[in-house]
Every structure is written in C-alpha cells, then in structure tokens.
C-alpha cells in the first residue's frame, strides 16, 4: 500500500495524527551503550520491528489462485483471481467452491526501495510523536536503536532455533531499511545477541546508574523485563513489575515458542500455564520453579516408552525433566549480561535439596505424579 493510501485509511478510521513540525530533526539519537548524561530519559528501541514492518509494507504481496471453472454449457475455462488481501481471497474461494488451499499462491511485486525507507522514517516519526505525548518524563529524551546481531547464541543451545524462518519470505528491502537505521539513526547490533537481549542488558545498566528508561517494542518476550514499556503499534504504555516479569518468564518456559522452534510442554498454552503457576501458594522464584518442574515431570512421565518405564527411578525422571526445562529456559530467557548463561534455581544455595525433596514426594515410585494444590 502506498504511503498516501495509508494516510487516507488512517484519516477514515480516525487514527491519523498530524505530524509535528520536523519531528525527526528534534529526535536525539545516539549509538547504543553511550555514557548517559544527567537528566537523560533513554528510549531503548527494538529497531528490528521498524525495519521489518516498513519493508513488508512495500513488498507488494499478492494472493493468486488459478483453476478451471465449469461453464453453464459444460465447457471449461481457465480462471484466475488476484487480490492483495487474504480475507478477500478466502471469501472468493468460498464463493467459487475452491477447497484446495494449495491452489492459492503468493507473489511479490515490490515497490521501490525509497518507499520502504520512507516508511521507516514515517514509523519513527509516529513513534516519536506518540511516545512524547504519553510519557510524563521531563528529562532529555534520547533514543538508542538496536538491531539483532548476525549470529545467535541460542543456536548453540538448540540448532533448530528459528530454523523454520529460513523457509519464510523475507521482505525484499529489509536489509536496506536496517542499513538506513544504522546510517541515519546510529542503530547498532551486538554479535550473538538478538535486539531483545541487548535491550534487556542496556535496561539493567541504566537502572544500575539510576537513569530513567523506556523499552520500545511489540515483542511479548520483553515483558519478562521489569520497567516501563511502550508498544508503538498499539500506542500503549505499561509498567511491568518485578513479579509480573518473573511470572511472564516462567509462563514462557512452560509454553515454549513453537514459531521459534522452542518446544515447551506439549499441549500447554497460556491458560494451562497460568493454572500451573497458580497451583503454588507462594509466588517466590522457588515456587514458580517447582510448579514448572513438576509440570515437566508430568510430561516426561507421559512420554516415556512403556518398555523403559520400569527402569527409570524418580531421580532419573527428575533429571530428564530438569534438563528439558533448562533447555527451554535458556532459549526464552533474555540476557542481562552478554556472557550470562541461565541456570535453574536448583544450582543456587540450598534450593537443590528443597526442590528435589518436594518433587520426589510428588512423584511416587509408581510414576503417578500428583499435583500439589
């Protein structure tokens, strides 16, 4: 969709805001990890979001279907239909009785690269306008933009991490949009880390320095970081407490993230994960850990081949469940330090004996795991 068309649509649905005069000339950006000045309010921007959305808008994605139609006289005609919108294609297929989804193909007719670059600038302008309106900070607004690095440490934990995404179409102008953000706004990336990790690391650094900061992203994974968050798509500002951040992390540990190739407990979605975490009387880290480990233990019990079940002791099952939980947690956990490796609470202090005793009590020798209420 062309920029002019977007603006017209926004005016029709009442979401368009007149741009401020030369807003981007007032938007102070600097290369990440710079020493903050007194009175700074640092906006930590997930620049991947802006690059991808701007490029995708100009990809010219079209849905096309070709099929043979039987005419009233019994003859057959070759028919084709092309549309920009999936919902229109679905409605057309229903009307024409086309039930085979394989008949639908996608084609791309990208608009010029300059359109994508313009989209990035317009998106940053919109974000700048909105975020300065909804936040009440009185300091010097400084923006730091971060992009995902070339490699990813999660591949070392799980070689299949985001493997499916290689098969997905990437917007034609994605790299150009990223380079524009680097050249014009000082966006930076850190090798082996995703933008999410860098934002989490920088957030921790600024907090330790007592510098106010806001995380700007649409990614739900960042909600495991306590602090102020701004969603530029929803134009929504929210505050995440320490408890909410911890809860969001353990919820993700239970569910995994199938789209990234991270497989948690089979059949566990948001509602089931919430029930599992609510099964404990305490919201301390140990309680969340035990609830999650017990759920993984149940999953191990359910998936053990029958011929092996009699040979595994409760300790064996505990070890399998802990290994599975740790593998998922290391992938969904956002780093607070570039060299950090997530470790389960069992490795800290005397928690290992406490957790072990709790789990073994709830996992009798006969394998009938009982959930504590």
Describe this structure in words.
It is flat, with a radius of gyration of 25 Å. The longest helix is centred in the first third of the chain and has 22 residues, at 113-134. The chain has 373 residues and is an alpha/beta fold. The model is unreliable at 364-373 (pLDDT under 50). Strands 6-5-1-7-8-9 form a six-stranded mixed beta sheet, sandwiched between helices. A three-stranded antiparallel beta sheet has the order 3-2-4, covered by helices on one side. It has three domains: 3-56 and 113-240, Rossmann fold; 61-108, no CATH class; 247-362, no CATH class. It has helices spanning 3-13, 23-26, 47-57, 86-96, 113-134, 154-157, 174-185, 195-209, 242-255, 270-277, 285-303, 306-309, 314-332, 351-362, and strands at 40-46, 61-70, 76-83, 104-108, 140-152, 188-192, 212-216, 227-231, 236-240, 256-257, 262-263. It is 45% helix and 18% strand. Helix 9 (242-255) packs across helix 13 (314-332).
Give the name of the CATH architecture of the largest domain: 3-Layer(aba) Sandwich
Coarse structural class: alpha/beta
The number of domains is 3
What percentage of residues falls in helices of 4 or more residues? 40-55%
CATH superfamily of the largest domain: 5'-nuclease
**What is the CATH class name of the largest domain?**
Alpha Beta
- Ends distance: 53 Å
Basic shape? flat
Low-confidence stretches: 364-373
User: Order of strands in the sheet with the most strands?
Assistant: 6-5-1-7-8-9
């Amino acid at each position: 969709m062309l920029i002019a068309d977007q603006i017209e649509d926004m005016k029709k649905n009442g979401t368009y805001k007149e741009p401020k005069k030369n807003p981007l000339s007032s938007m102070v950006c600097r290369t990440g990890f710079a020493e903050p000045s007194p009175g700074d309010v640092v906006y930590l921007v997930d620049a991947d979001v802006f690059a991808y959305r701007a490029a995708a808008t100009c990809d010219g994605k079209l849905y096309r279907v070709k099929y043979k139609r039987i005419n009233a006289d019994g003859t057959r005609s070759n028919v084709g239909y092309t549309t920009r919108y999936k919902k229109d294609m679905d409605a057309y297929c229903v009307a024409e009785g086309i039930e085979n989804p394989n008949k639908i193909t996608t084609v791309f007719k990208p608009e010029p690269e300059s359109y994508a670059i313009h989209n990035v600038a317009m998106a940053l302008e919109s974000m700048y306008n909105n975020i300065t309106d909804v936040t009440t900070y009185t300091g010097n607004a400084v923006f730091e933009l971060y992009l995902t690095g070339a490699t990813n440490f999660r591949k070392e934990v799980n070689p299949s991490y985001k493997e499916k995404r290689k098969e997905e179409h990437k917007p034609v102008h994605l790299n150009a949009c990223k380079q524009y953000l680097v050249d014009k706004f000082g966006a930076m990336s850190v090798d082996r880390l995703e933008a999410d990790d860098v934002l989490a690391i920088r957030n921790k650094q600024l907090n330790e320095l007592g510098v106010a900061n806001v995380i700007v992203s649409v990614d739900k994974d960042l909600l495991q970081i306590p602090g102020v968050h701004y969603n530029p798509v929803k134009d929504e500002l929210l505050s995440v407490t320490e408890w909410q951040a911890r809860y969001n992390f353990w919820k993700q540990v239970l569910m995994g993230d199938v789209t990234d190739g991270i497989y948690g407990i089979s059949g566990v979605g948001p509602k089931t994960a919430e029930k599992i975490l609510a099964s404990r009387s305490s919201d301390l880290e140990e309680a969340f850990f035990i609830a999650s480990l017990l759920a993984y233990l149940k999953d191990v019990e359910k998936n053990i081949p029958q011929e092996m079940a009699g040979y595994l002791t409760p300790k064996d099952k505990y070890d399998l469940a802990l290994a599975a939980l740790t593998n998922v947690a290391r992938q969904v956990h956002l780093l607070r330090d570039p060299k950090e490796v997530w470790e389960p609470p069992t490795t800290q202090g005397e928690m290992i004996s406490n957790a072990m005793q709790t789990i073994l009590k709830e996992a009798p020798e006969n394998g009938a795991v009982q959930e504590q209420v």
